[in-house]
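Listing S7. Sequence submitted for prediction.
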Amino acid sequence: METHVERISNLQDFERAKLDRESGLRLYEDMILGRRFEDKCAEMYYRGKMFGFVHLYNGQEAISTGVIGAMKKKHDWFCSTYRDHVHALSAGVPPFEVMSELFGKETGCSKGRGGSMHLFSKEHHLLGGYAFIGEGIPVALGAAFSSKYKKEVSGDKESDSVTAAFFGDGTCNNGQFFECLNMAQLWKLPILFVVENNKWAIGMAHDRATSNPEIWRKASAFGMHGEEVDGMDVLAVRGAAQRAIKRARAGEGPTLLECLTYRYRGHSLADPDELRAEEEKAFWARRDPIKKLSRELIEGNYSDEKELKDIEKMIDSEITTSVTKALEAPEPNTEELTKYIWAEN
């Protein structure tokens, strides 16, 4: 049986999304935003400005950017995990609102009540980050069911929204995963099950934790379309997402998309990351998704090094401003401790 490294090394190239200047720069900017935002989170955490559990996304940016970038913002729906900052940013939640939430401020997207693992934005169709693995998959399934119900029962012919449920390899032996795959295929729901297989579930190597480590093959048990893709290649992810979204909008049902990727940091910022071999980390560092897209943009004459550096400077400035404003933002009013817990008239 192939290891994680062998799988991605031997992965056959499916049709990648076409690269052009406009989309290429948009993808690059989104990935840079995700990477630099997470780097700033690490800095704030170690400076004692950020508290609680903080799980960063470094290395996995091609998945968030590739999938969400292929969907319609404020039309389609997204459901995340405890590693949710970058999904929120890709969905369009402003960096200031995300950073405010991480500082527990009233200006946060969850009004300072959620913190790192519980980002939510109704405006941007972000259905939440969830601390327990598998928790968000049934929520995403409900959103997909709602889209189909509105179209086929309520008569809303314009209802064609698609939902993307993001989760990790450690979730894929849980009951919610199998139950929701079955229901989604049974009812041909418009949903993408996006597995961000970064090889490690906290400190448990994926190859040691499941009898068949090729998660995408589990789709066949339900008659569902499954696909394996290089999660370190944003154009490969985008191409796979575009195909899945097209099937979903056409009423052809769900897709299980396994993205082979790697997180560059420990499970959380409290994790000393002593279990993973340096050789393994070096292998995945050479496949960095941002550097790969940068090379393709330059070699294809879609951009040049100066323009890409200017994008990085612009993002750095935006993040710095977000931090400054978030630190100065008001704390939640203690008299409103129970606000947002129950529905209000």
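Caption to Listing S7: primary sequence and predicted structure tokens for the chain studied. The chain has twelve helices and seven strands. The chain has a mean pLDDT of 96.
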